[in-house]
């Protein structure tokens, strides 16, 4: 039980980190793309 739960928590932590990075980076890249003209 602990092994399965540990595996789930590990994947949950990895997914959470990726999700947080995605939320932080997407608005940042969108603002930089809209403010700077694309050559």
What can you see in these coordinates?
With 39 residues, this protein is mainly alpha-helical. It has one domain. It has one helix at 2-35. The N and C termini lie far apart (56 Å). The chain crosses the membrane at residues 12-30. This is Sporulation protein YjcZ. It comes from Alicyclobacillus tolerans. Keywords: Membrane, Transmembrane, Transmembrane helix.
Summarize the structure.
The chain has one helix and no strands. The chain is mainly α and 39 residues long.
Write the layout of secondary structure elements.
Layout: H1 2-35
Shape: rod-shaped
Percent helix range: over 70%
- Share in β-strands: under 5%
* Alpha plus pi helix count: 1
The number of domains is 1
Order of helices and strands: H
Question: For the terminal residues, how far apart are their CA atoms?
Answer: 56 Å
Cα radius of gyration in angstroms:
17 Å
Work out the number of β strands. 0
Task: Summarize this structure as a short list of keywords or feature phrases.
1 helix, mainly alpha
